[in-house]
Amino acid sequence: MINYLKSDNIIENKIKIGEIPAILFRPREESGPIPTIIFYHGWSSNKEMQRMRGFILASVGYQVIIPDAIYHGERNPINNYGGENATKYFWDIIFRNMEESKNIIDEIISKYNGDPDRIGVTGNSMGGITAAGVFTHNPKLKALVVLNGSCGWQEFNKSFKESLGENIDTRKLEEKVSRTDPMNNLDLLIDRPIMLLHGDSDTLVPIESQELFYEKLKPLYNRKEKLKIMKYSKLNHFVTTNMMEDSIAWFYKYLLN
Q1: DSSP output for the chain
Q2: Do 160 and 78 form a contact (C-beta atoms < 8 A)?
Q3: How many Å separate Cα 21 from the centre of its chain?
Q4: Torsion, Cα of 128, 188, 107, 145 (10° steps)
Q5: How far apart are CA 26 and CA 19, in angstroms?
Q6: CATH superfamily ID and name for 10-256
Q7: Cα(first)–Cα(last) distance of the chain, in Å?
Q8: Cα(182)–Cα(162) distance, rounded to whole angstroms?
Q9: What number of other Cβ atoms are within 10 A of residue 256's Cβ?
Q10: Dihedral, CA atoms, 76, 206, 135, 216, nearest 10 degrees?
Q11: CB neighbourhood size of 155 (10 A)
Q12: Contact, 52 vs 66, CB < 8 A?
């Protein structure tokens, strides 16, 4: 495979954080503590499939770390990402990502010269759901961008189970989903910079849970400009160039400066 993502100004390395394989991008000329973004991939994706997005973010001044989730990439990927396995593994992967986030954040600071006061998090689809949870429960993280994900986990989980049509008992997970759900922890989010980017015709992660989350959280904000939802007309479950541009603008406002 031809490596077309090359630049004299960007360094790309494969790294391991404990047992977590990841890709790290960083601007070559950056010497001091550097603003850093953790990017989480979606269901059935992996770190390599997100290289373009990591490269784009690094090209405008960020260090970017893209970790493989369990059962993806180099971490014992499953053969079939269809309905039964989605029901079986989906939330376990998100909770594992959240557990591992502390080690990733610690190494960003201690080993990769990340600025502890300028760490943001983003992700697409399952990665966006992950990013929402990681941000909610890590109060030192500076900014969040959710791409086609959900911050209203219980609400999303209803449509998730209905769409799969599987008869697997998920009640054991549902209590943990409820307890960890960003929408049930709004007090941890007040006045922290959050941007929600979502296609209004998304059939995989319907936009309704994001709209509900936004409407519940917005009245609590003293600085309304720090919470924003952008809806993309007639867009299904895709990340567009406009979404990447809007993400860059948000991180520039709340992370780079």
Answers
A1: -------TTEEEEEEEETTEEEEEEEETT--S-EEEEEEE--TT--TGGGHHHHHHHHHTT-EEEEEPPTTSTTS---S--SHHHHHHHHHHHHHHHHHHHHHHHHHHHHTS-EEEEEEEEEEETHHHHHHHHHHHT-TT--EEEEES--S-HHHHHHHHHHHHT-----HHHHHHHHHH-GGG-GGGTTTS-EEEEEETT-SSS-THHHHHHHHHHGGG-SSGGGEEEEEETT--S---HHHHHHHHHHHIIIII-
A2: no
A3: 17
A4: 30
A5: 21
A6: Alpha/Beta hydrolase fold, catalytic domain (3.40.50.1820)
A7: 37
A8: 21
A9: 14
A10: -160
A11: 19
A12: no
> Rounded to the nearest 5 degrees, what angle is found at the Cα of 86, between the Cα atoms of 70 and 231?
95
> How does pLDDT run along the chain (257 residues), one tens digit per residue?
456 566 778 999 999 999 999 999 999 877 789 999 999 999 999 999 999 999 999 999 999 999 999 999 999 999 988 878 888 899 999 999 999 999 999 999 999 999 999 999 999 999 999 999 999 999 999 999 999 999 999 999 887 777 655 555 567 778 899 999 999 999 999 999 999 999 999 999 999 999 999 999 999 999 999 999 999 999 999 999 999 999 999 999 999 87
Residue count of the chain: 257
Look up residue 215 and give its amino acid.
E
- Pairing mode, strands 34-40 and 227-232: unpaired
